[in-house]
Amino acid sequence: MMIICDSGSTKVDFRIIDNLGQVQKAACTGLNPLYVSNDEIVKALQEIVLPLSGKHVDSIWFYGAGVVGEAANNVKLAFSQVFDCDLVYVDSDMLGAARALCSDKPGIACILGTGSNSCFYDGSRIVQNVHSGGYILGDEASGADLGKRLLKAYIKGLLPRAIQVEFDKKFGLDYAAIVQKLYREQAPSAFLGSFSPFIVEYRNHPFINSLVNDAFAEFLHVNVMQYDYRRYNVHFVGSVAYAYKEILEKCVRTSGVSMGTVLRSPIDALAKYHAQKRIQDEQNSEELMNKAVASLMARTRIKDAAKAKELLLKYGSVAKAAENCKSHV
Question: What pTM was estimated for this model as a whole?
Answer without folding.
Answer: 0.80
